[in-house]
Amino acid sequence: MEEIKDSKYKREIQQRSLLRYLKGLYPRYKNYLKYKRISSIARKKGAFVGNNVTMPISLAKKANSNLTIGNNTSIQTDKLDLRAKVTIGHNVVIGKDVEILTNSHNVDSLDWEHKSYGIEIEDYVWLATRVFVLPSCRKIAYGTVCAAGAVVVKSTEDMDIVSGNPAKFIRKRKVIHSNLCVESLLSNDYEAYVDAYKDK
After folding, report:
1. pLDDT per residue over 37-88, tens digit each?
2. What CATH number is attached to the domain comprising 16?
3. What is the SS3 assignment for 40?
4. C-alpha span between 101 and 29 (Å, rounded)
5. How many domains does the chain have?
């Protein structure tokens, strides 16, 4: 487990009374076991899944060797097209109803055959609710934020904020969410919670 920085998350946990801390353990432990099982299902299907990953069981059940997910990543959708490689980094937040397509058809072909692309999503990316990523986008770079409802048709650069249909560059992000305990977003932060209190 990565060392937890001196963050707001850590300070809030350390300020808890022992009783309040213990009350917070049970629901976190329950979710920890749930998401550990879900990650285990995805691994059995051939995916590489890091530590403290949160994802729906429906995604785990359709996972295959094309899926790679880094540590401390939160995924709230199962709409990932795994016919080509999907590589997701560390500390990534992928919101509800995000859809990622990795395949298309060759419109200039008599046989209309498939064209496979794949995508890399680097560390500290945030894909907000209902982002739609098309196969023409091959890389969502480090720290990129794709605003809610964005239709991402091309690759981004480090720290870009993009929005709209098609998604256009708005501005550069000033900082990444390095103090956020990403796994806490969906209450899968049992290990971080215990480690933070132990450091008290």
Report:
1. 999 999 999 999 999 999 999 999 999 999 999 999 999 999 999 999 999 9
2. 2.160.10.10
3. helix
4. 34
5. 1
